[in-house]
Amino acid sequence: TQLLEQSPQFLSIQEGENLTVYCNSSSVFSSLQWYRQEPGEGPVLLVTVVTGGEVKKLKRLTFQFGDARKDSSLHITAAQPGDTGLYLCAGGSQGNLIFGKGTKLSVKP
Amino acid sequence: SQTIHQWPATLVQPVGSPLSLECTVEGTSNPNLYWYRQAAGRGLQLLFYSVGIGQISSEVPQNLSASRPQDRQFILSSKKLLLSDSGFYLCAWSARRPYGREKLFFGSGTQLSVL
Fold this sequence. Notes:
The structure holds 2 protein chains of 2 kinds.
Chain A: E1 5-7, E2 10-14, E3 19-24, E4 31-37, E5 44-49, E6 55-58, E7 61-65, E8 71-76, E9 85-92, E10 98-99, E11 103-108
Parallel strand pairs in A: 2-11
Antiparallel strand pairs in A: 1-3, 3-8, 4-5, 4-9, 6-7, 7-8, 9-10, 9-11
Chain B: E1 3-7, E2 10-13, E3 19-26, E4 32-39, E5 43-52, E6 55-58, E7 64-70, E8 73-78, E9 87-94, E10 105-106, E11 110-114
Parallel strand pairs in B: 2-11
Antiparallel strand pairs in B: 1-3, 3-8, 4-5, 4-9, 5-6, 7-8, 9-10, 9-11
């Protein structure tokens, strides 16, 4: 069974700090996606990475796909209260997407 | 542009009652459609997905069922709800892509409480 482990499970930081959250697996994925979900809403796709070692930047967010395509990280620079939410990674393989349990981020002003 | 509508937003139902959640997609044709359940601390669990009208694949055995009577309509049903059916239900669509490359677009969810 393919699993995606996300860490940390919870993260509470002050506005302006930097942070990194991780998504790890023992399985290889053909692609990896990151979603952000706000309370009471559905997840919203942030990025898809498909090539081992790939780095994508979305304003203050930097996403990296591991060389072996088994892990990914999301780095946020100078976090803002608007970044608060649940960050989910999802791995694609021969079946449907597999989701991690998420990292719940709280950015306090 | 494509939009996805899911309703109701909140639902409180007694144990043993029936369930019907509806999801519709606009602005696209022949989408893949999905039902997920999100329980606290357990992540997103895929319940059903459909690649076409009348084509339903079930990922988890349960007392829920799904139907796709029209191309852009996906319905989640139960004849008798259990306490364990409580959770946040999400409908999603994706364009046709190779497995594992789908980009999912989610509805706003239904918070179901079974009492």
